[in-house]
Amino acid sequence: MLVEREPALLARASLRNQARVHNGYHYPRSLLTALRSRLNYGRFLDEYGDCVDRSFPHYYAIARGVSKVTFAQFTEFCRRIGAPLVSAPSAVKRLFDSSRVDAVFEVQECAFDADRLRARVDRELRDAGVGVALETEAVRLRTASTGGPMTVVTRGQGGEREIGAGLVLNCTYSRLNRLLADSNAPIIPAKHELTEMALVEPPRELAGAAVTVMDGPFFSLMPYPSRGLFTLSHVRYTPHASWQEHPGAPSVDAEARLATRESRFTHMVRDAQRYLPAMSGSRYVDSLWEVKTVMPRSEQDDSRPILLQQSTTHPSCYTVLGAKIDSVYDVEEALAETLGLAAPAARHIAQSAPRGVASLRGNESLISIVAPLATDATPAAVEAFVDETVAMLRRTVTHYEIILVDDGAPAETTDRVRALLARHDFVRFLRLSRHFGEETAITAGLDVAIGDYVIVMLPNMDPPALIPEFFERVRSDADIVYGVRLHRKSEPLWYRAGARAFYWYINSVVGAGIPEDSTQFRCMSRQVVNAISQIRGPDQYLRLLTSYIGFRKQALPYAPINRTGQPTVRPKADAAHLARALIIDHTTHPLRLVLRLGMIAAAINVIWVATGPGAAGQTIGSALGLFLLTMMIGTTGEYVGALARRMRDRPAYYVREEHTSSVLLREERKNVVDATRDGS
Ligand SMILES: Cc1cc2nc3c(=O)[nH]c(=O)nc-3n(C[C@H](O)[C@H](O)[C@H](O)COP(=O)(O)OP(=O)(O)OC[C@H]3O[C@@H](n4cnc5c(N)ncnc54)[C@H](O)[C@@H]3O)c2cc1C
User: Fold this and answer.
1) 509-548 residue pLDDT tens
2) Which H or E element spans position 413?
3) Pairing of strands 159-165, 150-156
4) pLDDT, tens digit, 9 for 90 and up, residues 577-588
5) Tens digit of pLDDT for each residue in 297-356?
6) Residue 187 predicted with pLDDT over 70
């Protein structure tokens, strides 16, 4: 029996939405949701092909600078989920403002027609003999203290009625807690938004195309087939109000909020036309208003799992919170599993007794490990590092990837890495075209990492056993947690002395604020990685960039290991280049220093000549002057050279090959959770 309070089925959120049949592109920050969308997309098109509109081209543009995903990350992400991506035709690209948009792609994504879906569902329910009571509200659930079947109290045109039920599915979307609260059942933490999507006639220049700008406070223009119009939505302006529902929070009358509304079309279109000037030609027709309900956990990573939760007070009642139209397939499988049915029989669940929801599926965050492999990376050390890291990651999260960046590692090491690709899932191997140096190799890894959290590690010295601690600290109260070595035992004396002098100069004189003895070992949130990836220069120095970008930081002291038994030092040339580049890039202090020295020397020289030091003294004075002059010219030359390097603006590195051990996520992983907040 299906009970619906509206006069028709699919008259609420399933009608008043963006009508996008998601094919994964929309979720670069939640790989699991993206991958499930990819899987469900094909199935939805097979089964409901007559209810979708595939006639329009769809373009995804990646915003420059402020996007949460960069052009390179988006490309890599689509490759990983196997989503087709081609560059948009030049005529389309020209429509965008190139100073605000990095790239424009043509993608495969279509729109559903809610009216046609309703007609299909009506017919299918009738054929299956399912009773449908329209304009009937489920007001309360009752479970006898002795157990047994439940009673659902409904209210319709004929007044209140009681219906006995072996199983109740509470699929009331934004009103999910109304039924639970009125049944004295604990409510489910949820976030609601009062949303507006403007219905518009699109600009002529777009010739009926859909446009989505990623990934942040941008807009989407999508066909809305059931009205022959387009929806214009904007991440910043579509939500008019939001509120949380959790135990103790004041209750909000969402229906009343829907009644007070004033369109924000002007804001939406003004912002949209900054990226796509032709948007100024869109004509407002109407607005779709709806309460959108998401789980609080989706706030951070933009994931859209579907919720399936058993009530503790009414065990025969399950709440299902939909996330997207086609995620119904995810819950179909999860329900079948929960009720102990074979998946195809899930359509006949009404006669079955519930058995308890499958346990919560671990932590859904994805961790990327970025590890550069330098010239001193030995096969045994890399193998041990990968084995230990995989073991630690498996204990920590469900989803992860290890990105090994070959920065001139010996041939036997790269051969061993190929063997590791065959042995472990989720290992990626990025081979740079030559040895660019540790910092550039890390930059290359960060550019392609797709994790919600990224951990940088040097295989030779960073212990994988600390991964959980780094990760937990970033998840709880920091944006960056960086390692600080407790000792430098495996470094020769000259290197330690050099490091001391470097830290003294860069911190005490220059004031760069690089924590002394900090290492590359660090865990960063996606926000931090994106901030760092936006900074481009010939010499990227992670520790300096980390200090520059701000965010909340925490130090984690640890004892480095030494897998190779060799001194853990950068090659001398790399170390000297880095120290020089850092000092020159960061400050003009050396220029000022030689200028002062020159002035002091000149003054001494004048006094000396005036007091008549003799021919030998004059020669010494001239030699000293020449030496200082050379120093000044040399130092100035360094700055001019640094400037020239920046002006050349060429790529910091080139990738020779890339290998991946397997698809990142297995198909059988389900995008279903049994709590709306981690741990609740
Ligand atoms: C602004 C917006 C944009 C979106 N864009 C997309 C998109 O592009 N693509 C996508 O796939 N998804 C999108 N979604 C999400 C999608 O709309 C929802 O995930 C989906 O519609 C949820 O389906 P549902 O059946 O759970 O909810 P609904 O379709 O809202 O169905 C719930 C039904 O329960 C009824 N009801 C409530 N309480 C009771 C009661 N006590 N008794 C009887 N009946 C009751 C309601 O009347 C309603 O008909 C969007 C949502 C919003 C709000």
Assistant:
1) 767 677 888 899 999 998 888 888 877 776 677 777 887 7
2) helix 411-423
3) antiparallel
4) 777 766 776 667
5) 776 666 778 899 999 999 999 999 988 998 888 888 788 888 877 654 334 333 332 222
6) yes
Residue 171 CA to ligand 1 centre (angstroms):
9
Q: What is the distance between the alpha carbons of residues 361 and 670, in angstroms, rounded to a whole number?
A: 9
Please state, in angstroms and rounded to a whole number, the distance separating the CA atoms of residues 304 and 144.
35
CA of 321 to the centre of ligand 1 (A): 9
Rg (CA), the chain: 31
Q: Are strands 137-143 and 150-156 parallel, antiparallel or unpaired?
A: antiparallel
Nearest ligand 1 atom, CA 288 = 1
* Interatomic CA distance for residues 587 and 596, integer angstroms: 16
Separation of alpha carbons 219 and 197, rounded Å: 11
CA torsion sign, 164 to 169 to 173 to 176?
positive
Nearest to 510 by CA among 609, 578, 418, 582: 582
Task: Give the amino acid at 243.
Answer: W
CB atoms within 10 A of CB 271: 18
Q: Which residues contact 80 (CB under 8 A, 6 or more apart)?
A: 31, 450, 660, 663, 664
- Say how far apart CA 347 and CA 358 lie, in whole Å: 19
Q: Is 559 left (phi over 0), alpha (psi -120 to 50) or beta?
A: beta
Contact 100, 64 (CB under 8 A): yes
Distance CA 619, CA 605 (A): 11
pLDDT band (50, 70, 90) for residue 634 = confident
Q: Which two tokens stand for residue 338?
A: 């929960």
Average model confidence (pLDDT) for the chain?
84
Give the closest residue to 469 by CA, choosing from 446, 458, 453, 451. 453
Read off the tokens for 560: 């480095």
Atom number, ligand 1, closest to the C-alpha of residue 136: 43
Amino acid at position 294, single letter: V
Candidate from 18, 26, 194, 232 with most ligand 1 atoms within 8 A of CB, to mutate: 18
* Residue nearest (by alpha carbon) to ligand 1 atom 38: 172
Instruction: Quote the crossing angle between the two packed helices 379-396 and 467-477, to the nearest 10°.
Output: 50
Structure token digits, residue 86: 């081609």
Q: What is the pTM of this model?
A: 0.66
Q: What are phi and psi of 307, to 5 degrees?
A: -95, 135
Tokens of 67: 């996007």
Q: Find the residues whose C-beta lies inside 6 A of ligand 1.
A: 3-6, 10-14, 17-20, 22, 137-138, 171-173, 175, 179, 195, 197, 290, 292, 322-325
Q: Which of 382-391, 487-496, 579-588 has the highest mean pLDDT?
A: 382-391
Rounded Cα distance, 341 and 205, in Å: 52
Q: Which helix (H) or strand (E) element contains residue 337?
A: helix 328-338
**DSSP string for 167-193:** -EEE--GGGHHHHHHHTTPPP--EEEE
Distance 173 CA to ligand 1 centre (A): 5
Two structure tokens written together for 304: 């859209």
**Helices 542-549 and 438-448, axial angle in degrees (round to 10):** 60
**Atom 28, ligand 1: which residue's CA is nearest?**
13
Strand segments, DSSP code E, in 458-570 are 480-485, 518-525, 553-558
Residue 593, H or E segment: helix 589-610
